[in-house]
Amino acid sequence: MLNLPNCPKCNSEYTYEDRNLFVCPECSHEWTLELESENNEDENVIKDANGNILNDGDSVTVIKDLKVKGSSLVVKIGTKVKNIRLVDGDHDIDCKIDGIGAMKLKSEFVKKL
Question: d(Cα 112, Cα 23) in Å, to the nearest integer?
Fold first, then answer.
């Protein structure tokens, strides 16, 4: 017997396959596995403070004064950062800031130019 996924809507185990769709006889929900994989890809998208999608090489502006940990330096509001790199982790932007050097920023504190 095939191992079919449970219904994502009602979690019923009595699903069946109809051509390229999976169907739940209990709640009449229809879905494809491709749709589920597209949703998983969207989870890895990094967005700025305004909800714009960020990409490698974008330029951003800092929207809040940020203290640099371990020094007395501050990244001032309005500081422009060019050619960012997106990385995994808590601080998801890797960049170089003029006068400060290499830094990691959180995407929630920048907006895309």
Answer: 42
